Amino acid sequence: MVYHNFKIKNEKGFSLVELILVLGISALLLSVSDSIYKNFKKNNNLNIVVNGTVEALRYASSSALSNKGDSRWGVKINPTEVVIFKGDSYVNRDVSFKESISIQSDIKTSGINEIIFEKSTGVTLTPGIITFTNSNNEVKNLNINAKGTITY
């Protein structure tokens, strides 16, 4: 009877297959999380612009209601910014006063682009809808009625 002396090697480390498997799974997780992050960021940018525009509209409305500066107040939606202005229109505004909020380049606007609130009453001369769309085609609408009420 012949006995073979087999020794079990107690080697430490990873095999090439295990290493490739771990790298593949890591790459897959990284690509999925990057895609989720980009979508989250685009949606977040859309919410920031919508909320900033709502705050701008509320500021202009309350300034007109309180007869601040004895003037009408308004908001102008430009492709790159939302501007709060004092005056009868954006073209005829008081250029000494200007506050603005930037709009990220991946967000497009449509609908009414100039909203003016009457002094003392706060009603708007230009009711309508402002639509914001991001590059994922997510859409948010702001509705301003004739009384100056903003819904979104």
Please describe what this structure looks like.
- The protein is α+β, with helices and mostly antiparallel strands and 152 residues long.
- 33% of the residues lie in helices and 24% in strands.
- It has one helix spanning 16-65, and strands at 73-77, 81-86, 99-102, 108-111, 114-117, 128-133, 139-144, 150-151.
- The strands form two sheets. The chain has a four-stranded antiparallel sheet with strand order 3-2-1-5, with helices on one face. Strands 4-6-7-8 form a four-stranded antiparallel sheet, with helices on one face.
Shape: rod-shaped
Run of helices and strands: HEEEEEEEE
Rg (C-alpha, Å):
29 Å
Kindly name the structural category.
Answer: alpha+beta
CATH superfamily name?
A: minor pseudopilin epsh domain
Q: What is the number of strand segments?
A: 8
Low-confidence stretches: none
- CATH top level class name: Alpha Beta
Walk across the major sheet and give the strand order: 3-2-1-5
Please state the average pLDDT score. Answer: 90
Tally of structural domains: 1
CATH topology: minor pseudopilin epsh fold
**CATH architectural arrangement:** 3-Layer(bab) Sandwich
Give the proportion of residues in helices. Answer: 25-40%
Write the layout of secondary structure elements.
Layout: H1 16-65, E1 73-77, E2 81-86, E3 99-102, E4 108-111, E5 114-117, E6 128-133, E7 139-144, E8 150-151
Antiparallel strand pairs: 1-2, 1-5, 2-3, 4-6, 6-7, 7-8
For the structure shown, list the relevant keywords.
rod-shaped, four-stranded antiparallel β-sheet, 33% helix, alpha+beta, minor pseudopilin epsh fold
